[in-house]
Design brief:
By secondary structure, the chain is mostly beta strands. The chain has no helices and eleven strands. Strands 2, 4, 5, 6, 9, 10 and 11 form a seven-stranded mixed sheet that branches. Strands 1-3-8-7 form a four-stranded antiparallel sheet, with no helix packed on it.
């Protein structure tokens, strides 16, 4: 079991930015893909952004053009850069990873609140 620990959440005004970090106990370049999910009390956990082992990235339509997912394989950290944040981005954000056999690892989540 790989441990994933998120950080970087907080309160930000609409239009502001945050960068979430996910520190992995394993090598970030040893996953088939890593991603960020988010959920609220009323919405199920949903995929926000994904980065593959080959660094191909994909994004939910709701965040495309505003969020950027990246890895630092030297530090074993997954990032989610969030720009032009909107109130609807308010959620608990989770780091997630799949190995090459499909085994999943989840972080505990970090809260992002976008409010004026």
């Amino acid at each position: 079991q790989v441990a994933l620990v998120e950080s970087g959440g907080g309160l930000v005004q609409p239009g502001g930015s945050l960068r979430l970090s996910c520190t992995s106990s394993g090598r970030t370049d040893n996953f088939y893909y890593m991603d960020w999910y988010r959920q609220t009390l009323t919405e199920p956990r949903a995929l926000v952004a994904r980065i593959t082992a080959l660094r191909t990235t994909s994004y939910a339509d709701s965040v495309k053009g505003r969020f950027t997912i990246a890895r630092d394989d030297e530090k074993n950290i997954l990032y989610l850069q969030m720009d032009n944040l909107k109130p609807e981005d308010t959620a608990l954000y989770f780091c997630h990873a799949n190995d090459y056999v499909g085994k999943e690892s989840w972080g505990q989540g970090t809260q992002v609140t976008v409010s004026s």
